């Protein structure tokens, strides 16, 4: 059975959940007043799910791959921002651990999907 909607992708679902979590932690008192950093972290976490969705909708594996690489980059960006947030004492060690666990999980799943799609680049309506 093929997946017809990006919402059915496990990667997108996990990225969505992670994005919601990032929104919650960046709404905390210390974090929410650092507007630029708060918005940057929210943006990078949202970029993961958004690029998976956009790539899926492009109609071919080659473009989907391009957007998956961008999503993976955004995932790593958010991971790095987690360290920065911890260093600034905006988040706890437990919250950092969650960010690191989730970004690693999402990144591994993106890599697995990339490797799967690379096996047949001629799938989709657009090559």
Question: How would you summarize what this structure contains?
Answer:
The longest helix is centred in the middle third of the chain and has 27 residues, at 61-87. The chain is 75% helix and 0% strand. The protein is built from 5 helices and no strands.
Overall CATH class = Mainly Alpha
Q: What percentage of amino acids are in beta strands?
A: under 5%
Strand tally: 0
- Give the rounded overall mean pLDDT: 93
Q: Helix segment count?
A: 5
**Structure class:** mainly alpha
Number of domains: 1
CATH architecture: Up-down Bundle
State the major sheet. Answer: none
Q: Summarize the amount of helix as a percent range.
A: over 70%
Radius of gyration: 16 Å
Contiguous uncertain segments of 5+ residues: none
Structure report:
The protein has one domain (8-118): Up-down Bundle (de novo design (two linked rop proteins)), CATH 1.20.1440. It is elongated. Helices cover 75% and strands 0% of the residues. It contains 5 helices and no strands. It is an all-alpha fold.
